Amino acid sequence: MGKNEKYLLDNVNFEIPMCFWVMYLDNFLGKEKAEEFYEYLINARDIKRLNDIRNLISCIGFSIYDLSCNEQLAFISIFKAFDTESKLVANMKDGVNDIFKYYENKNLKLLGDIKKLGYSCDYAKFNWKDKKLKDTYQREYVFVIFSEEDTCEQFQKKITELAKKYNINEVLITDNMRDRSTRMQIKSSVIDVSTGEKTEDIEDTTIDTVENYLSRISGTKVVFNIPYEKIKKVINKDVDYLTMKNYYSPRKQEKVKNKNPYSFNSAMLRGALLSRFEEKNYNE
Length: 284
Prior knowledge:
The protein is built from 9 helices and 8 strands.
């Protein structure tokens, strides 16, 4: 390690805004060479757009996404924001907690139905704005389902049937993720569950797309990240009943078993996954 490199690593202030680093590199390398370096850095570090839908799920080695190939994604949520001060909630034994317990049981049942269809699924936590209380949000899970080896027609049919079972009127389904590049853009469609017809086509599916879809079907604003969350109230903030319960289909379980780890950490992760796959009720 060179003395200048060591000095920087020991002393640089990482709180310096990125715009200053860009300015320094532009001035030292020149605009053209700096652009080449930025492109290299983006691809080498796989720096995705902040609004990339892949930021909703894990993309590390041995993740469900890492083991997928040319698959579609479907987004399913059964949660509906509720009036925390309504008479219905007030008359319940434990009010708000009872409502969230209801959704917990229902989501676990949904997870079981996804397993029966043979799909892998990951999940993301989203936040539903309370319809009455200012600066208050309700947090719950959204399932991100992978199509495995199904055709587009098979996947759409099974997902719409699943949505109908849980009284969901619309589903958001992406096209096949053929392009796995850092700056990937992927198309998607909103499907009317009752007719199976497309009601909207999206050219570039982002986190905004998912937020808008969830907001429309729930009748209140839904966000992935709450602006200035520290000064907002989040009901069910510590929701964790699905922690480490993302589900690998039997097909992807075999991929984990057959894939060699590439580092000590990946070997530890693979070992943890293999142990989880051996749990008695994992596939139920």
